[in-house]
Amino acid sequence: MRDGKPLRHIVLIGFMGTGKSTVGRLLAERLACAACDVDAEIVKREGEAIPAIFANRGEREFRAAETAALGAVLGADDTLVVATGGGAVLSPENRELMLRHGFVVALTADPEQVIARVSQDENRPLLQGDLRERVYKLLEDRKHAYDFAHMTIDTTHLGVDEVVERIAQGFIRSISQHSI
Predict the structure, then answer these.
(1) Is 156 within any annotated ligand binding site?
(2) Which residues of this UniProt protein bind ATP (predicted)?
(3) Beta bridge partner(s), residue 105
(4) Integer Cα distance of 135 and 158 in angstroms
(5) Which DSSP category does 180 fall into?
(6) Is 3 part of any domain?
(7) According to the annotation, is 141 in a ligand binding site?
(8) What is residue 119's DSSP assignment?
(9) Backbone dihedral region of 14: left (phi > 0), alpha (psi from -120 to 50 degrees) or beta?
């Protein structure tokens, strides 16, 4: 809740390959609202693909663009389901924005499931090199980065519809608790 009002958006956080984009689209359909992928918003705003931003400007510039895009998206008046990039939680400013404007849901998955899900995706600049080694290292580095979420769901053994339903119910409970 912010300023006495229920949280307006649902913000999906989690490591890459946990299902944020897929769950986000289906959750938005379920709730009859719009979905927004922050990575897609960055590409639109910057006019450059994410791997190109990393290559040409570096991770620091990418993270600044990410914060700007996240702030713009979360400033929307209409309810959105917002899928963030896996590293969006690294910035304290981003975490504060998410908590101020949204019901934050962390999606997790077993490391081997993450590897299987991202192994064919060449648009992941942080996974260049030994994929298995990079995934395990990043997961270790970020093991507590998602702890601030209102709700956490392990997607390893759940179907997308099950994940969507759990989030929808959690969001609805959150709204009803604040409207009493």
Answers:
(1) no
(2) 17-22, 124
(3) 12, 151
(4) 21
(5) -
(6) no
(7) no
(8) T
(9) left
CATH number of the domain residue 32 falls in: 3.40.50.300
Is 8 assigned a ligand-binding role in the annotation? no
For the record, the structure tokens of 149 come out as 């979420």
Number of domain units in the chain: 1
pLDDT tens for each residue of the chain, 180 residues long: 444 455 689 999 999 889 999 999 999 999 999 999 999 999 999 999 988 998 899 989 999 999 999 999 999 989 999 999 888 999 999 999 999 999 999 999 999 998 888 876 665 555 566 778 888 988 899 889 999 999 999 999 999 999 999 999 999 888 777 654
**Is 20 annotated as contributing to ligand binding?**
yes
Q: Is residue 2 part of a domain?
A: no
22 among the known binding-site residues? yes
- Output the six-digit token pair for 14: 């989690």
Question: Would you put residue 159 in left (φ > 0), alpha (ψ -120 to 50) or beta?
Answer: beta
41 is a domain residue: yes
Q: Please, is 56 exposed, middle or buried when counting C-beta atoms within 10 Å of its C-beta (0-12, 13-18, 19+)?
A: exposed
Alpha helix segments (H runs only) across the chain: 20-31, 38-46, 50-74, 92-101, 111-118, 131-141, 160-178
Q: For the full predicted model, state whether its pTM sits above 0.90.
A: no
